[in-house]
Structure formats: C-alpha cells, structure tokens
Amino acid sequence: MLNFLKINFVNRKKILVMAIMDLKKLYAGSFLGLIWIILKHLIIVNVFWFTFYIGLRGSNYVDGVPYFIWLIVGLAPWFFINESLTSGAQAMLRKAYIIKKIKFQVEIFPIINTTTNLISHFMFLVIIFGLLIMNGFIPGLFDLSLIYYLFATFLFLWVTTILTSSVSVLIRDVPYFVQSITSALLWLSPILWPFTNLPYRLQVIMRLNPLHYLVNGYRNALLFHEIALFLSIDTIIFWIEVLGIYIISVLNFKKIKPILSDML
Amino acid sequence: MNSYAVELNNLTKHYKIYKSNFYKFWDLVTYKDRADYHIALENISFKIGHGEVLGIMGLNGSGKSTLLKILTGVTYPTSGNYTVNGRISSLLELSAGFDEFMTGYENIFLKGYLLGLEKKEVSNILEKIIDFADIGKYIYQPVRLYSSGMKSRLGFAISVFVNPDIFIIDEAISVGDESFKIKCFNVINKIKSKGTTILFVSHSLNTLSAFCDKGIWIHNGKIQDSGDINQVIFKYREFLKSIDTKKLDTTKDIQKVTDIFQRMGSSLRNKVGEKTSRFTLNDEINFNFTYKVKKSLEFVIIKFYIKDRFNNLIFENNFTKAEYKLNGKIGTYNGRVKLESTNLLPGIYLITIELYDDSIFNKIFILKDYEIEVIFNTDSDIGNGLVYLEHNIFSEEWRRE
C-alpha cells in the first residue's frame, strides 16, 4: 500500500519528464501544436453555451454569475477528468512497447498519464483566469482553495487510473466502458445545469458523486467564495471514496503486476 | 560486490493459456486456476561471474527468450529466484522502447530514462550515440519515418553507450548489413575487454564460439548442457545433425531417392588401407564407399567438400565437370575419393560426400560432416592455420636500378 506510494514518490522526477514527453508527443506534427489543448476545449464550451443559452433559451445568469463564465469554470475540471479517465484506461496498453521490452517501474505509468493531463489542464486554467479577470472576477485570496481542488481532482483521477489501466490489460472492454461512463457523467452531473435544479432526494444521492464535489469546488473557489462548502460533510465523503478506490486499485494492481507483460 | 553478476536458482516459468479473457480475469479475482500451462522454463540454475561472456543456444521456442526476459526483469518467474548485480542493458530487440511518434533525438532521452539514467548522463553520451548511429538529419525526424536499419542502428548505439554492467544481446545484431555488423562487433569487443558481463544469444555457432567463454544449451526449457563454449557447441551441433537426418527420413524426396540409390557403406582409410579418422600432415586420405543404383541413369554426379569446425568451406569440387560423372547403370559400385597429400594442418575437419542423380535433384549422403582429425606431431610443425601453402623464400641484395 505505502510501497506503491513510495515508488511513485521516488520517481517523481522521471514522472514529470515522461509526462512532458507524452504531452509533446500528443500534438507533435500538428501545425498548431499545444494550442489545440486550449482550442478544442473552447470550441466545446461555445457549443454548449450556444445549445443552452441560444438554442434552449436558458437563463443568462446562474446564481448571479453569467452563464458562459459559470459554464466554462464547471467544464474545466470536467475536461481534465474526461481526458484523464479515458486516456488513463489505456495507460498500460499504450505503453506496451515499454512494458514488454524494458524493465521499468510499471507503477508509475498511471500517474504519468494523470500528470500529462494535469499540465494541459494548467494551460486551460490560464485562459480561464484571463476570462475571469476580463469579466470583473478579480482573483482573491479564496481562489487559492483551487489548489486544494486541483490536488483532490488529481488524486481522484490517479487512483481511478491505477484501477482502470491495470484491469484493461486483462479485459480490453474497460477503456470503452470508461469512455461511455465518463461521457454519461457529463450530463448526469451538475456541470451543464445547476445542482439546485434537482429535487431534494436526488440532491442527497448526487452528493455521493465525486464529480459533483470537484466541479462544485472549482466553481466555489473561482466564483462563489463560500467557506461553508469547503468544510462540509461532502469533503469527508469524497476522501473516503478516494481512499477506498486507492485500496482496491493497489490490491488489484499487485495481483496483475507479475503477469502484466505476459498479458499485454 | 557480489562474486556473481547473475545467479539463477531453480528458475521456472509457466505461461498460462486461457480459453478466453474472461476466465483470465475471473481466476485472478477468485484465486482459482483453470488455465492450461505452457512450460517455458524448468528448474534453470546457473551462475555467471563478473566479466564472463556466456553464449546461449537452443532451437526456436526452447525458452531462450523467456530466460532473457526474466533476467531483464520484463517478466517474472513462476517459481525460483534470481539475482542480478549491476545495470542491465539489453538488445532483446534493437528498436525496443522506441516511441514511434517522437524524434530520434527525443527517443535517446526517453530510452535513457527508461534504463535509469539522469538527464546529464544522457547528454554526456548523446554525441557518441548520434555519431555511431550515423543517421544524419533523420535524428530530428520521428522514428516512425525511419527505415528498419536506422532504427536498429540507433537502438544498438543507445544500448551500448549507456555503459551497462551486464549486457544482453539477442539475435538482434544479425539484422544489419555487413559493415554495421563489423561495427557492432568491434564495440562489443571493446565492452568485453572492459570486463562487462555479456549474455549472448545466437543461432550462429561461429559467432558464439568466437565471443564466448562459457555456453549453455537450452532444450525444451531445460539446460541440456553447460560449460566450456566449444564443448557445448560440439554437443549442440551433434544434436542438430541428429534432428536433421530425422527430418530427412520423413520427407517424400528421400523416399524417391531410395528408389534410385541405396547407400551401402563407407569408410575412411589411410594409405595402407587401415580404417582410421586420424591422419598426419600430408597423409593420403581415402574415402571408400559403396552404393547401389536401382534405376538406370545417364550418369551419377559426385560432390564432396571439406569444412573446418567453424563451418568455413575449405574446398568443394566443381561437380559440373565431366570427371565427376560416374557410371549410372543399374548395379552396385565401389567408389573412392582419394586425397593425396592433403596439406591440412593439425585440427578437426569435416567432410561430406554427396551423390546426385542426373537431374541433380535427388541426392544421397554417402558421408555427412564426417570428422577427420589431423594430429599434431613435432616433426610436422610447419605453420599455423588450416592449410599448408607451398611457398619459397627468396632473398637477394638490393640494388638501385
């Protein structure tokens, strides 16, 4: 359990270097290169804004915040989550060319994948801060709580990736499964619509959804600045979930590791 | 420092074979075992000292690659244990660990990290690698655009220059062209002289015997023989011969041949007519053989050749010439190849005699790789090598023209 953490900690330098390599590789050969990370997200945000604000005639403000701003702040963590989970499910499969040929700490492949996505998430966050400032949301001290939510998102994605990436070596359906679930979660979580639209009973269930906790946290950190949410019971629920996934993931990983290169 | 570079104790590796991926997963979850097994390695134990060069031989599928995979840490043994002291660099596949979408330059760094080097260390050897790989401008192009030769050159260069303590070479080197091969062997020789432990897998027995001190022959996952390289190679070669003739017996061609020819017997005799396989320098060597022609032929062709023990051809007759056409009418014949004053220097030589029908399609072996030993005695110590060449020495006073 702790050994797994240790391996990842000891190799932190290598993880960062390889994550950057992977990121460069992702858009290598395209004209616009890394600009695509921002461009593709902005296009989707505008499509949603068009659908809900123009097409479905939604309200212009959610809790006193312009819909577009509210939308993009909520979509930011979702982009991170979506890309990290879908690519994470294949983190081992894509590295088969290394795992099968060279002795390597396979434990660090999940975190490399999450780190790659974290870096591209940082780039998008820069754009968001720019947008916020342009619209009069001057970042204050409370915006620092975003660091906590970044950390929480990162850990959640990492522990999930450990599980999905290793199981998908045995069951090749897992990446498809993860992809379907994450795209469903976009619509089932309060990302495009406000949480308060839900009836009370559903609200209780929704609080178990880690995506809700993270998206809500981003919005609170950047837009609403409510200290109460930060200290709510949701935080405890979220961390219990992350710890649970971590334990399952690592136990499962230990079993799969010895046969990993034979199965790939 | 441990006294051995590599130590293996009762290493066993089973591969599980499942009917479907579902069983694979379910077994893992439920701790049950419903797989079929393929035994790749069984109770392998050996030790390699620091600086030793070990040659590994065996047929395809005998478990050589699995053994190397375990040693490099890519896969794990089912039971038994092993220790490796030092950094391993392997040439399992020259292009292993390359990312097709990154440039050659970036791949050098990637592979460096994978092998456990720091950025600085990679930078230090960068120039050497690029220089050795010799791929010019392509170093800044993605590896997917490389030819297979370029990939293996770059791969070889990286694996060599990371300064491994233990170096594993699979068949890989035989990929390149001759000049690249020579370059590789020069570098390997350098590494060898530095005292690096080398594990060398090859099907080329000549290369093995030239490079290695010790040898291991693996057959069906077990060590069949180990020890001095030449001794192991000798046994392995004997074994190869035996399966070769077994195969021939089952082929249809041979059945046809038996309708045409029959081999009755053969012997090696010296000048006096005694049966022997030991000769001294300039001895007369006679190969006597008896064969039966069962179907009337226009003629029978005889071909013979002599090789040294590393399979280098010393002489082969030009069997297209008329003098090698023998009587082909039905009957039993005694044949003889007489070598007068052979000029072979002391050593072991292999002779093969073959008879062909007039179409040169069907052949029988009269003798196959039959060993002749030319023995050493002090009277005949006239030089070194394979063959004695007639020569004369002249010397006269130098005068300006």
Lay out the secondary structure.
The complex is a heterodimer of chains A (264) and B (401).
Chain A: H1 2-10, H2 12-27, H3 35-55, E1 61-62, E2 65-66, H4 67-88, H5 91-94, H6 96-99, H7 109-134, H8 145-170, H9 174-188, H10 200-206, H11 210-224, H12 227-230, H13 233-256, H14 260-263
Antiparallel strand pairs in A: 1-2
Helix pairs in contact in A: 2-7, 3-4, 4-7, 4-8, 4-9, 4-11, 7-8, 8-11, 8-13
Chain B: E1 4-17, H1 21-30, E2 36-49, E3 53-57, H2 64-72, E4 79-84, E5 88-91, H3 104-114, H4 119-133, H5 148-161, E6 166-169, H6 178-193, E7 197-201, H7 205-211, E8 214-219, E9 222-228, H8 229-250, H9 252-260, E10 261-269, E11 278-279, E12 285-293, E13 299-308, E14 313-316, E15 325-327, E16 331-339, E17 347-356, E18 363-374
Parallel strand pairs in B: 3-7, 3-8, 5-6, 6-7, 11-18
Antiparallel strand pairs in B: 1-2, 1-4, 8-9, 10-12, 12-16, 13-14, 13-15, 13-17, 17-18
Structure overview:
- The complex is a heterodimer of chains A (264) and B (401).
- Chain A has 264 residues and is mainly alpha-helical.
- Chain A has one domain (2-197, 215-263).
- Chain A has 14 helices and two strands.
- A two-stranded antiparallel sheet of chain A has the order 1-2.
- In chain A, a hairpin with a 2-residue loop joins strand 1 and strand 2 (65-66).
- In chain A, helix 3 packs across helix 4 (67-88) and helix 4 runs parallel beside helix 8.
- The radius of gyration of chain A is 19 Å and the shape is globular.
- In chain A, 38% of the residues are buried.
- Chain B has 401 residues and is of the alpha/beta class.
- Chain B folds into two domains: 4-240, Rossmann fold (3-Layer(aba) Sandwich); 260-379, Distorted Sandwich (Coagulation Factor XIII, Chain A, domain 1), CATH 2.70.50.60.
- In chain B, the strands form four sheets. Chain B has a six-stranded mixed β-sheet, with helices on both faces. In chain B, strands 11, 13, 14, 15, 17 and 18 form a six-stranded mixed β-sheet that branches. A three-stranded antiparallel β-sheet of chain B has the order 2-1-4, covered by helices on one side.
- In chain B, strand 8 and strand 9 (222-228) form a beta hairpin.
- In chain B, helix 3 crosses helix 4.
- The radius of gyration of chain B is 27 Å and the shape is globular.
- The interface between A and B is medium-sized, with 27 and 32 residues.
